[in-house]
Queue: 2 jobs
Job 1
Amino acid sequence: MDKKDWRQIMRGLSLLTEVGLMIVSAAALGFGSGYLIDNLLGFDLLFKLSGLMVGLAAGFYSVYKLLTSTFDD
Amino acid sequence: MNPGPQIQFYLFGNELLPITDTLIVGWVSVIIILIGAKYLTSQLSIRPNGKQNIAEFMVEMIYKQIEPMLPGEGWRFLPFIATIFIYVGIGNLIGVVPGVTNPTGDLNTTLGLALVVFLVVQYEGMREYGVWGYIKGFAEPVIFLLPINIIGELAKPISHSFRLFGNIVGGGIIITLIYQAAPALIPVPLHAWFGVFVGAIQALIFGMVAIAYISVAKS
């Protein structure tokens, strides 16, 4: 195993935990924003659910950008 | 058992600016780094001696992590990434000393570091594309990606800080439980595992993720 392989392993290891947590934190952020908007406008679930969906999408999209940017070489 | 930071005293009066044990250990870590840097870089020469070899090895090791992800800009980002890497590394390893709390086991510390990385990422994005170009990039390639990109960007410091905080606090709680359950059997290798190995790996990961975020902003 040469040094380049080790660097790839370290990069993979560093992103391993970040990937899962990024999806969760983006989803929580989306849900939290929806919760605030729902409280402000007097809705029940509308913005909470849409916020959660947008948050999940944001998490997956961020992970996609992070992985393509990190492993493009 | 309260794993959170403990208030030692207040800087002003009875309520203002609480100084916690993690903050004090954080300052001690900074002093250790300053003394170490001064010692390792005193009497530099063209032909390196023992301690200069250690300093050069560390600089080169961190540089080799940055350069493949930010081609041609390894030296520019080295001071920033190396500062993060060394501070988080010392902050993680100092917890091996009995009775000393990890500064990275406090969410205030890790969130502070993650926010610094977040600001640098925004600055680098604006430096690359211009202020308006960078802001406009959040709505590209299609406008409906705007909320997705904004939430994704704001989630970065949260996930960045919570991962380091969670790993260090989780390790500390496991060690405490093991100490209570089987004090004479497992603690030494387990303490070495969570204190030294996990601490070093987490420092490397924190720095690598910071490089990855900067790389995303510039790409």
Job 2
Amino acid sequence: MQDAQQTLDQYFLEMRWRCLSLAADLDRVERAPGGNAVIGSDPRLKKLREALGVLLEGRPNRAEQVQSIFSDKTPPPR
Amino acid sequence: MKYIDPHIHCVSRTTDDYLYMARAGVVAVSEPAFWAGFDRSSAASFADYFRHLLDIEPKRAAKYGIDHYAWLCINAKEAEDVALSREVIKLIPPLLDHPRVLGVGEIGLNKNTRNEITVFEEQVDLAARHDQLILIHTPHLEDKHKGTSIITSILKNDKRIRPERVLVDHCEEHTFRLARENGFWAGMTIYPVTKVTPQRAVDMLETFGTGMVCVNSASDWGESGPSNLTDTCLEFRRRGHSEPEAIEVFFNNPCRFFGQCPKWKIKPIGE
């Protein structure tokens, strides 16, 4: 089993491109006509910002917490 | 190394994919009945689809040395039409003895509606009455956690259902425990845009353990492919897990789940 340093060494470039890719995605939305309004108001992007907060908080089970943010929490149909 | 892809929609794939699978070491596949990408107009369309699954696709696979099995049902998306669903369900019992049928699936929910739940319960009843294995489709994206909760509750409340004869598929980080802690098999689908990447799948294998877990590609008409399965095994090995450990996950586990149906003839390696 690899230690943490080896794991980071192995995945860092992938982590870097995923971060860059998301940054470029947001730039693309913002550049498009109406971009500023969408960036500020779309509920999906609000969830994305919430998810990014989870990544920065430093608590474990980040993937599960992010999944929860993107999950429907209404009760089942009767 | 030999592989089994426990969930793949071969009817939607090219012959090149069969060639890839054969070269990569895939020796058997199981193909659940699913949504074709459009709603079918009548039960007769499903009768033709079932014939395709049971008589045509096994021959196509056999040309590449791949053993092909299938599952029958009406899928969750078309289950919104309850009347059509009931007509389709009537087609299934006479086909359950076909040597290529492993059970009822992939049944489940799509948008978690009342109609979908009604048809799901009727297909669980069908499986229970005919003592069939069950393959479960859980919903996508924001609907997954709620849908998986509803599905596992229904299954747990039906005392005829033995959890070890049910595979709850498309599990992710927030639903894996719902399957395993209730005694069901858990399936992980390597379908990077909407489900799981190879890296996250191996994270879950390391976090939750490798017992009663099957990994599949669910390759279909969307952005998917059989190499997602072999890439996941590569990621598993790249992290230092041994070949015997990989064989457990990518070959022996599907043999153990499917082996509960006497029609499945492939035995786990080393047992």
